[in-house]
Amino acid sequence: MQKTSLPYLIVISAIATISFWGCTEKPSDDAVVLADNSGDSIQQPLTQVPGTLTVLMDNNMASYYIMKGQPRGFDYDILTWYCKDHGLSLDVKIIPDFDYILDSLLAGNGDLAAGNLTITGERLRRVQFSSPLHYTRQVLVQRLTPEARRSRAARKEWLVDHILELEGRQVHVNRTTSFAERLYNIIRENGIQVEVVEVASDVGYSRLIEMVAEEEIDLTVADENIARMHKAFYPNLDINTPISLTQAIAWAVPPGNDTLLTSLNTWLESKVNSSKYNIIYNRYFSNNPRRNESIREIRNGRISAFDKMIQSEAEKMGWDWRMLAALIHQESRFNPDAQSPFGATGLMQVMPNTGKRFGVEPHELKTPSRNLEAGTGFLLWLEKYWRRKMTDTTDIKKFILASYNVGLGHVIDARNLAEKYELETDVWYDNVEVMLENKMLPKYYNDPVVEHGYCRGKEPVNYVRGILRTYNYYVEFTDNNQAIEEIAGISLRPPQILPPHEAILEGEVNKGL
To answer: Could you tell me the end-to-end alpha-carbon distance of the chain, in angstroms, rounded to an integer?
Structure first.
């Protein structure tokens, strides 16, 4: 078995602050009694800054991150809902090093800490916890080898099916997590020998899971809900071996703030079994994102029912229509009624705010022609932005596609990182895409040159590659003598004049649009 040694490092990092206001106006400092959505009077909880709930969070795909310019995450969505019901503004403070989130909370830097925190005995000696948000258990994350997939005997020989089978195995975990605590308990309770490799504090659980999938390490531990999220992207993972009993996930509150704790618990008691709460939970932990599917056979040069419409819009843009069709296939599988859990709608999965910027109202986004107008308008705006910024525009389409998927801000961050690490800032493969993927690691998303925080960078990287594969397939099987081109040779004509909303959009660049 491969033995990988990762350095152990503790770095005390400054807290980077990102603030987002809630849906209601900030109340006056003397506001005490408010009305919730049911019309009942409620007591506004005691917070450090009256009218504001300051939350310490990890920057990851479960708690808080920015996608297409919008803040997302399970904890973020639930806390935004809580703040709306209590007339509070939500102030999010990102902790660059999650190891110190409870230390920061106890130092008075926030009202509560959130981030898939498991309630453990050691943590209870330091802080109070809210009522459970949900329950999970710790599981081994291991890799299904090709042999294990084909043979039941090979599967049984390779996989750890019981904690006693950890004897002699090597497991990588972060020292300060509850996972390390659980592994050491297993060793003490069962008298087995397990090599626990304590990795550096800047190697988060996402990176460890990815390392298992990519054969860099053999085993790690994760909460089952988090492991399930990652398995959607890494089907070669096995997450079926539990190493703990069911455990509660909750928010942490400093000792002594019983007013806030009571408010949180009262609110959670009325919400955790509601349909809205379950929808938010399933949005992050149960619904697998679409996986690539086989493209159906193309006959007589027809890709979809919308070919003529796509060809017309692509001609206005100066794009090869099959590239635009490949993007639409990736976004919606040509379903004009498609809608994501986050509100992206229609053929090109346009967000309502983006549609409005290009003159398309939210109720029009399921109309194919109007959806295409909004989506292609945004693509042209992105093209104009990158033409201004890039000296060499050979790879411009890759930058545009990635920006359309994950938001312009994250691609700008990746390019800044590429410059810092002396990579080619105008070259996508093995340069900027590498840094975009690296934005899932604290070392990179906490870098001073990064303004938009954590990003699940593998998704836009795969998104770009997937569209290019589909495009080449469309070129090959449509009745066209044009040779299959690399994306560098496409759309060299100047873009059309952009809509008059450009002035508004320019101000959105630094917000991660």
So the answer is: 44
**Reduced 3-state DSSP string for 233-294:** CCCCEEEEEECCCCEEEEEEECCCCHHHHHHHHHHHHHHCCCHHHHHHHHHHHCCCCCCCCC
Which residue shows structure tokens 């949180």?
Answer: 264
* 109-136: burial string, b at 16+ Cβ within 10 Å, e else: bbbbbbbbbbbeeebeeebbbbeebeeb
**What is the four-CA torsion angle of 313, 319, 325, 330, rounded to 10 degrees?**
-120
User: Among 77-86, 428-437, 445-454, 468-477, whose mean pLDDT is lowest?
Assistant: 468-477
Q: What is the DSSP string of 475-510?
A: HHHSS--PPP--GGGS--SPPPPPPTTHHHHHTTGG
Number of helices (H), then strands (E), belonging to the chain: the values are: 20, 16
**CA–CA distance, 16 with 76 (Å, rounded to integer):** 16
CB 487 within 8 A of CB 398: yes
C-alpha distances (whole Å) from 234 to each of 228, 238, 459 are: 10, 9, 11
**Nearest residue to 317 via CA among 498, 501, 496:** 496
Residue whose token pair is 């079926």 = 240
Q: What b/e readout covers 320-347, taking b as 16+ CB neighbours within 10 angstroms? A: bbbbbbbbbbbbbebebebebeeebbbb
pLDDT digits (tens, 9 = 90+) for 115-164: 889 898 889 999 999 999 998 999 999 998 776 655 666 667 778 988 89
Catalytic-residue membership of 331: yes
Query: What is the token pair recorded at 63?
Result: 């708690």
- List the catalytic residue out of 313, 331, 383, 437: 331
- Helix (H) / strand (E) element for 65: namely strand 65-67
**Three-state DSSP class for 105?**
helix
CA 359 to chain CA centroid, Å, is 28
Give the relative orientation of helices 458-477 and 396-406 as an angle to the nearest 10 degrees. Answer: 120
Structure tokens at 322: 């099959």
- DSSP character at residue 334: T
* Percentage of residues in the chain having pLDDT higher than 90: 55
Distance CA 376, CA 373 (A): 5
